[in-house]
Design brief:
single chain, 332 residues, alpha/beta, 7-stranded mixed sheet, 6-stranded mixed sheet, 21% strand
Length: 332
Amino acid sequence: MTLIKRNTFRFISCFLWTALPMAAQQPMVMPPFLKAGDTIAVVSPSSSPESAMVAKGCAALREWGYVPVVGPNALNRYHDFAGTADERAADMLWALREPAVKAIMCSRGGDGAVQVLKRIPLSEFRRHPKWLMGFSDVTALHSAVVSAGVMSLHSTMCDGIAARGERDSVNAILRGLLQGELPRYQVPAHPLNQHGETEGMVVGGNFSVFCGLAGSDYDFLTTRAADGLILFIEDTHESISKVDRMLHLLDVRGILGRLRGIVVGHFSKYKSPDAGFADVYDMLHEYLQTLDIPVCYDFPVGHHSGLNLPMIEGCRATLRVGPEGTVLTFIK
């Protein structure tokens, strides 16, 4: 399979740009930053968490100077989910609408966040802009929040903040970010990197989750396409051949050829070798090297113990990939 040239999508791209929902015409809203004593709601939009893990996460938030409040249904169990879709959506709506709650942390990922999307009007995210924290399956909610025109935080969750302690560098970045310190990341060079410099809106997360939203009102790749995107991708337990299909889905949709930059994060626990490639980076590079944009590999984001740097979804950033390494700087 070969990458279809970008000019093939000239007509398709024009159609997508003119058919965007109204949210794409609205400027992005940065939620208010937090101060000591603020309340953070802990909710479970996906799989059911262990109560001990939630308790440890809440203890960590208290150490940070915040007041954690666990959602009424956050510890429920229905099949493997944290309650029914209605219960999980109800907790999210409560956290959004409750004036005392200033930010929202998801307890864990897993499966099921997509089930709550139609139960939460996009207008609710816009009406109540609050920092939403989480990753993995929570990518579905990040995509919805960004589609509504609000920034969101792709970050560690209860287990992550509890497991590594207050002095952990990733936890320190998340704490600072909640207080208004936008991060600047500098990571080592990778032999497959494609050099260049660009600026755009950062979106991304779990590759399979956001690909599953293709063409919907919750798909940030179409609702925010006109903003010029820097896409970051990560995944776990997916085969190289499936990642190959998802990459080419972006190409067929006319998305890949309009990206301004790509940040390739962790792809963990996949079957290797697969589809004749040495590893997933080898496969991605074979196709992405045809694009005239900066691409960096092995960026510390995703399913990796302790190396999941917080990313501000919907925020503009500069991306510089050079011989010395990669620098990603978020800007207001």
